């Protein structure tokens, strides 16, 4: 099992798919990495040599922000918005949708499980 950027990459999957297990690498970046290193995307991770895995690891470290650094950067951006007390920061602080979605009926993912209202009878 190859370990890249602190993530165990599944060995029986294709290289392009396996690279997407790393937080911050999607389909486009995975394809870009394999093309830059001239690795055939259809190859499996178990068929890669140690030098190719090392090349992938070095390329990701040099050119992409992934895993812990990316999560930290995202958290700092949200914290900055909250400290500024701008509209988006207030929405983050209250746990409500940030990008203008309606909250009257939907938004259960952000708001959490619905709470019963005491004394509301017909």
Automatic annotation (TrEMBL):
Residues 97-122 are annotated as: Disordered. Keywords: Ribonucleoprotein, Ribosomal protein, RNA-binding, rRNA-binding, tRNA-binding. One of its GO terms (cellular component) is ribosome. It holds the Pfam family Ribosomal_S13. Transmembrane segments: none annotated. PROSITE patterns: RIBOSOMAL_S13_1, RIBOSOMAL_S13_2. Part of the 30S ribosomal subunit. Forms a loose heterodimer with protein S19. Forms two bridges to the 50S subunit in the 70S ribosome. NCBIfam families: uS13_bact (TIGR03631). Belongs to the universal ribosomal protein uS13 family. Located at the top of the head of the 30S subunit, it contacts several helices of the 16S rRNA. In the 70S ribosome it contacts the 23S rRNA (bridge B1a) and protein L5 of the 50S subunit (bridge B1b), connecting the 2 subunits; these bridges are implicated in subunit movement. Contacts the tRNAs in the A and P-sites. This is Small ribosomal subunit protein uS13. It comes from Sphingomonas qomolangmaensis.
């Amino acid at each position: 099992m190859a370990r890249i950027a602190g993530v165990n990459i599944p060995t029986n999957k294709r290289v392009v798919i396996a690279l997407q297990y790393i937080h911050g690498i999607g389909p486009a970046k995975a394809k870009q990495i394999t093309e830059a290193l001239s690795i055939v995307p259809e190859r499996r991770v178990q068929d890669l040599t140690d030098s190719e895995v090392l090349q992938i690891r070095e390329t990701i470290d040099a050119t992409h922000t992934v895993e812990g650094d990316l999560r930290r950067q995202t958290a700092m951006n949200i914290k900055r918005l909250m400290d500024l007390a701008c509209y988006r920061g207030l929405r983050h602080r209250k746990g409500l949708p940030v990008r203008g979605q309606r909250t009257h009926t939907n938004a259960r993912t952000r708001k959490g499980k619905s709470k019963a209202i005491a004394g509301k009878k017909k």
